[in-house]
Design a protein that fits this description.
The complex is a heterodimer of chains A (552) and B (129).
Chain A lengths: L1 H74 L3 H5 L1 H14 L3 E8 L4 E5 L3 H4 L8 H9 L1 E3 L11 E10 L2 E10 H9 L8 E5 L31 E7 L2 E10 L4 E7 L1 H4 L1 H90 L8 H31 L5 E3 L1 H18 L2 E6 L7 E3 L1 H19 L3 E10 L4 E8 L6 H4 L19 H11 L3 E7 L3 E9 L3
Parallel strand pairs in A: 11-13
Antiparallel strand pairs in A: 1-2, 1-5, 3-4, 4-5, 6-9, 7-8, 8-9, 10-12, 13-14, 14-16, 15-16
Chain B lengths: L4 E5 L3 H13 L3 E5 L2 H10 L4 E5 L7 H11 L4 E6 L4 H9 L4 E4 L4 H21 L1
Parallel strand pairs in B: 1-2, 1-3, 3-4, 4-5
Helix pairs in contact in B: 2-3
Classes of the chains: A alpha+beta (552), B alpha/beta (129).
């Protein structure tokens, strides 16, 4: 029950300590991580937004430049001039020296006929009529046009920038082709890290540039459909169960959508590392707290148990002494009540004796009988007196006192108490006292209790047939008295030897011993300023030695 | 040794009667009374050398009687007699000037010896006085 109580207390202390230290640690960690995560994510989103807007502007700028180049060219020349292929070639070469953006250049009349062409596909394209092409209709109606990427007659992905020119009563078109590689180069700058991707889709969600991972040119990408996007957006969407960060922005000139795709894991690596580190430190902290709590609690419990034990012993001593005090009072009462009639009997017997001596009774035939009877009465009065006086002595001793004590005499009294018991069990009690043992200031009753406890144990240990040897010595060096009580019983096993003074330790059957005799004795001797030692060898017997200081 | 005068005070009449008889047969001038009050009034009229005083008596007990006696006759020697082993009353008695403290039952020879010692002391104190 006691162990259970301590176990429960142990758990209570541990749990309280842990919750009061771990919970704040945990909350601190979570809050800091949340804050860090929040600001870091915000930063990444911002970066991504800037990147995608940046790329869009670059593409837009590219389109603007090409468009204005074409518009300038078309509006500063007459159709005749540009229809001259030699001249057109010259102009094309000048443009190409500054930038290789254009793949070819062509002049087309309002009927869709290719009037002049400069570029690598001369043979395929020179005689083509564009009248039925989509872009032709579009440029005729809007004036300028940028196409989606398509294969066209040449079967190579490209797109067109065309400008319509009204010249007096006729209309013609200056058309340039741009390799989609150029667009891809512009977009590729946004393909970050190992898993980042960037591509352009048109309003039909068809890829205008070749992405790294997300599909093939002129097909649908394997990402969600962003074709309807407006403005700039960053969102996190799953693809096949894996989260991806998508940033989208619209290219103004074409209403295309630039999509930048990121692996959040790659972007968030520092955040994940922070999380891991925070977790590790937190775990370490918890571990330290647990170890600390366990150690502190253990030492606390040890202290507590020690206190509990000491309390048990002192409680037991006080119970014992109050019991004995009550017993003493009773003994004194009985002794007193018996002493008075005993005194009367004594006096009467004495009077009879006096009379026997005075009168002439000596000649009576029964004189000897009278004398014997009176003598016997006196003898037994003395005997009864011894008992009552001993009872009174016992009663007196129950009160704690400090008086000059002859340890030999105290021991003799203790032996007196146990002599009968020893005789029944044929145990021989031998004494070897040093004569003239110095007196010491002590409590004879308590001392006697110690002797009684040890002698009792010795008798119990022997059981039947044995010997107890009691010696007293004076040790001048330490100015102390040593009392050794040796029995030739079975001895105490080594592993029990250091436990025998512990409270509630007993080798006797349940109910026979309280396990307190020796611990009380230990407490008493300690209180009297002495110490008590035990030596034992299995099969050889046990020797208790009590050292008492000599005090005046 | 001179004959000396003894007063025995004890409420136990059987005891009182017998001890008086026995002391008388030993040629001791002895008087017995059964209460402290009687002892004190007797002490007004008569001189005694030694008083044997029971401690536990109804009415005026041994200790109070002793105190009063010592006021009246400081030189009278008192031997306390009791069936009770109360150390306190013994010590108290001695502090109040009793000569000794004897526990009942006591052998008459022993008591006689104590009485003689008490008488000797009285003689010595009187000699000094």
């Amino acid at each position: 029950m006691e162990a259970q109580y301590f176990k429960k207390l142990w758990w209570n202390i541990i749990l309280a300590t842990l919750s009061f230290s771990v919970i704040p640690l945990f909350v601190l960690g979570v809050v800091i991580y949340q804050q860090f995560s929040f600001s870091y994510t915000a930063k990444i989103t911002d970066n991504l937004k800037t990147l995608v807007e940046n790329r869009c502007s670059a593409v837009d700028l590219f389109f603007e430049e090409r468009l204005s180049q074409l518009i300038s060219l078309a509006n500063t020349h007459t159709l005749e001039r540009l229809a001259d292929e030699d001249y057109l070639n010259k102009v094309f070469n000048i443009i190409q020296t500054r930038s290789k953006s254009f793949l070819d250049l062509g002049v087309i009349d309002q009927e869709g006929n290719h009037l002049a062409y400069v570029g690598p596909y001369y043979n395929i394209l020179k005689d083509v009529n564009y009248k039925n092409e989509d872009w032709f209709g579009a440029v005729m109606s809007t004036g300028t046009y940028i196409s989606d990427v398509f294969m066209g007659f040449r079967k190579i992905p490209h797109f067109i920038i065309a400008v319509m020119v009204r010249e007096k009563n006729r209309v013609w078109i200056l058309r340039a082709t741009i390799d989609s590689d150029i667009l891809e180069n512009l977009v590729r700058a946004a393909q970050l890290g190992k898993k980042g991707d960037a591509f352009i889709i048109n309003r039909e969600n068809i890829l205008q540039t070749a992405p790294r991972f997300s599909g093939k040119l002129l097909e649908h990408p394997n990402t969600p459909n962003f074709a309807a996007a407006t403005g700039t957006q960053v969102e996190e969407l799953p693809i096949e169960g894996v989260d991806n960060l998508f940033a989208t922005s619209v290219i103004k000139n074409k209403k295309w959508v630039l999509v930048v795709r990121e692996d959040p894991k790659e972007q968030l690596t520092p955040l994940l590392r922070a999380r891991f580190l925070a977790g590790l430190i937190g775990l370490g902290g918890v571990l330290l707290i647990v170890i600390g709590a366990v150690f502190t609690t253990r030492s606390m419990m040890k202290e507590l148990m020690e206190m509990e034990r000491k309390k048990a012993v002192s409680d037991e001593i006080s119970i014992q002494s109050s019991k004995l005090a009550a017993l003493g009072k009773m003994a004194a009462g009985i002794a007193h009540e018996i002493n008075n009639p005993l005194a009367v009997i004594g006096e009467k017997a004495g009077w009879l004796k006096d009379l026997l001596a005075m009168e002439d009774i000596s000649h009576s035939p029964h004189f000897q009988e009278f004398a014997d009877a009176v003598h016997k009465i006196e003898y037994h009065i003395v005997r009864a007196k011894t008992v009552t006086h001993r009872l009174l002595g016992f009663a007196r001793r129950m009160e704690p006192v400090a008086e000059k004590v002859n340890v030999n005499a105290v021991m003799d009294e203790a032996i007196d108490f146990l002599e009968n018991e020893a005789r029944y069990r044929s145990i021989d009690i031998q004494t070897d006292y040093i004569p003239n043992l110095p007196l010491t200031l002590s409590d004879p009753a308590q001392l006697q209790q110690v002797f009684l406890n040890i002698l009792n144990n010795a008798i119990d240990a022997i059981g039947k047939d044995g010997e107890i040897l009691i010696k007293t010595k004076y040790i001048a060096k330490n100015n102390e008295i040593a009392v050794t009580i040796h029995d030739n019983g079975p001895g105490i096993p080594k592993e029990m030897l250091d436990k025998i003074f512990d409270p509630f330790f007993t080798t006797k059957e349940v109910g026979k011993g309280t396990g307190l005799g020796l611990s009380i004795s230990y407490g008493i001797v300690e209180k009297l300023g002495g110490r008590i030692m035990v030596a034992s060898e299995e099969g050889q017997g046990t020797t208790f030695t009590i050292y008492l200081p000599i005090r005046d | 040794m001179d004959k000396f005068r003894v007063l025995v005070v004890d409420d136990e009449l059987d005891f009182l009667e017998t001890i008086v008889k026995r002391l008388k047969t030993r040629k001791i001038d002895v008087t017995g009374v059964d209460s402290g009050v009687k002892a004190l009034s007797l002490l007004n009229d008569q001189d005694f050398d030694v008083v044997i005083l029971d401690v536990k008596m109804p009415g005026l007990d041994g200790i109070d009687t002793l105190r009063e006696m010592k006021k009246k006759k400081p030189l009278v020697e008192v031997i306390m007699l009791t069936g009770h082993a109360s150390v306190e009353s013994g010590i108290q008695g001695m502090q109040l000037g009793a000569f000794d403290y004897v526990m009942k039952p006591v052998a008459l020879d022993e008591l006689l010896e104590k009485m003689r010692q008490a008488y000797e002391r009285k003689l010595i104190s009187e000699g000094k006085a």
